[in-house]
Amino acid sequence: MVQLEESKCDLLIVGAGPAGLMAATWAARCGIHARILDKRRTKIFHGQADGLQCRSLEIFDSFGFADRVWKESNHLLEMCLWNPDETSRIRRTDTIPDTIPGISRFQQVVLHQGRIERVFLDSLKDYSEIEIERGVVPEQLEIDHSKADDDHAYPIKVKIRYLDDDEAAPVQHGTNVPDGLFRSSLAEDDTDDLIRKSQRKKGSIEVIRAKYLIGCDGAHSWTRRQLGFRMEGEQTDFVWGVLDIVPITNFPDIRMRCAIHSAESGSIMIIPRENRLVRLYIQLKEVNSEVDRSKITPEIILKAAQNIISPYKLAYDYCDWWTAYQIGQRVGNSFSCDDRVFLAGDAVHTHSPKAGQGMNVSMQDTYNLGWKIGLVVKGLAKRSILRTYQSERRRVAQDLINFDRRFSRLFSGRPARDAADEAGISMAEFKVAFEKGNMFASGLAVDYGASILVAKPGDSADQGDGTDVDTVTNSTDRVVGKQELASNIKLGMRFPSFQVLNQSDARPWHFGQFLKSDGRFRIIILAGNLRDEKQWKRLEDFGDLLAKPDSVIRRYTPSEKPIDSVIEILVIHSALRQEVELLDIHEIFHPFDEKRGWDYEKVFVDDLSYHQGHGEAYKNYGVDKERGCVVIARPDQYVGWIGEIEDVEDIDRYFSEVLIPQV
Ligand code: FAD
């Protein structure tokens, strides 16, 4: 047996699915030393998740790769509802927009998980040395709890084992078409088997000491088992089949997203995909909850689909992938141990895939966590910010399960025959629930509670486990933002994006494009009407304070780094562009670099574009065009604080809870 040396890393990620890849992407952008392991030999090439919310696309855009996904994906614009008429024949009863118009610069799209993982892998290559270590399983986890609060310690010890190629390949179930049963809720997990087999063969092992670990190892999470954490919730009786096919059909809405409820044969969700593919989620009525998965075949699933969609015809010549699953709606009882080992993604929440949420919420878990670990490892932020991971994400997971319960019941139930049929599902209720659910399903309804990172007025948030936030942060004197200054920039929600113009070249941009995921906090100054002398002076005074040697931006920035490397300042004013000169504005708002000159990408204006109309940013943000306001956006674009231009002390107090002085 080859015993490899012990090694160290800042962050160890177990599992290279969407959650693990997002965590690795943050590690790459923050520049910390991370490793990412996966027990499988290859990435996913077919099937699995495919729906992307607008919020996920905004996040991809902040990393600079949304354009690839936007181009390759199929765009979902309309949703058609099909229901039985009085003769039990299915008919189109409604059409609704798939994404609520105007809520984001993106709409919901579909692209299979393998392509999405590819985009992540390419971005990792561009920004770091991080590579997925495949065919590797962790087999032992030890945590030295006594060192959990020591910023410099490596309290996590993981023994990993290298598998050979055969061991790392998932078992398939006898058809020529790739299936996802090995990842389905109907399959047993094979991790322990893999470890045992490899131990017998004396496969090589390595010991890794890590500062932090994230278990992104899916629904059967090994990491969760080591921590002894439980999943709470229940398994439903509904069994569903999934087919990714190129359909041959006379059903008229096959290129629309459809929810079809048949009178007696169950329901189908149709998701039109890239390359003429269509995904069908099909309720398997004749398979009960005691499922023997070896009996489920693509033919059985197709037969069920044909019954539901009748009298329309449905067949296929090409099937790309298929699977079957039973819906379990569960949330982990805890998301973190000592704020050193974390769980994310399917490892802490599982639910039905039809609403297209799992991959999105999983990626967004580690999108929430990755920058926090990055800044703490780099010594820029206090460890206490890590506590907000559980308080922020466990609540999202609980909301997701509640949403899924409502949605699955309405989708899996039999349509009511008439108003007196209480056992049936009212199709009017389904439509209303669907329309309401659309906001949740966009990912834009996420609203983080009060914490050291969200200066919300009113009640303190609970930590997702019932603990009060002020106990957790030990803060008696938490700063509170002034929500009334910006009615549509909500504390705890992501900073919305509207069109503004670059002051120096008149080019229109969606402001969100400047909120990059690079680990920086941002002070966004909505500077108001700079043609007004008083307003100009308010901004100049603010600039003078920020430029002082002990100002908030200097205090938290390492002396050898550029002044905007920890906190970036962006300005949007509301005067006419041509009546303001960039170089007249205080230098701190467009800093000078000896090699690169002035920074021309920090001052923007809410004005008319030559070719793309007026973004009306102030109006849309709900901010007074004369006086403006100031907003702190976290590195993940969520709004941390809102105040007046004079509220410099509050800005100081916000950052003093979160960041570590560097001087
Ligand atoms: P996973 O994707 O499960 O990744 C876990 C990774 O960890 C895997 O690569 C696995 O090999 C690895 N691993 C597991 N155990 C170990 C171990 N012990 N050691 C090392 N590595 C390990 N979600 C959506 O958002 N939109 C959709 O449209 C959608 N459709 C779906 C359709 C189907 C049919 C299914 C089954 C799911 C769908 N989902 C959808 C859900 C989505 O696939 C999951 O929620 C998402 O993949 C979770 O990501 P994850 O990274 O947490 O876990």
Molecular structure report:
- By secondary structure, this protein is an alpha+beta fold.
- Among the domains are: 256 residues, FAD/NAD(P)-binding domain; 190 residues, Phenol hydroxylase, C-terminal dimerisation domain (Glutaredoxin), CATH 3.40.30.20.
- Helices cover 27% and strands 26% of the residues.
- The chain is built from 16 helices and 30 strands.
- The strands form 6 sheets. Strands 1, 2, 8, 9, 10, 11, 17 and 18 form an 8-stranded mixed beta sheet that branches. An 8-stranded mixed beta sheet has the order 6-5-13-14-15-12-16-19, sandwiched between helices.
- A hairpin with a 3-residue loop joins strand 24 and strand 25.
- Helix 1 runs parallel beside helix 9, helix 2 packs across helix 3 and helix 10 packs antiparallel against helix 11.
- The longest helix has 26 residues.
- The radius of gyration is 26 Å and the shape is globular.
- The relative contact order is 0.12.
- About 1% of the residues have low confidence.
- The site of flavin-adenine dinucleotide has 38 residues, from helix 1, strand 2, strand 9, strand 16 and helix 9.
- This is Phenol 2-monooxygenase.
- Belongs to the PheA/TfdB FAD monooxygenase family.
- It holds the Pfam family FAD_binding_3.
- Keywords: FAD, Flavoprotein, Oxidoreductase.
- GO terms for molecular function: FAD binding; oxidoreductase activity, acting on paired donors, with incorporation or reduction of molecular oxygen, NAD(P)H as one donor, and incorporation of one atom of oxygen.
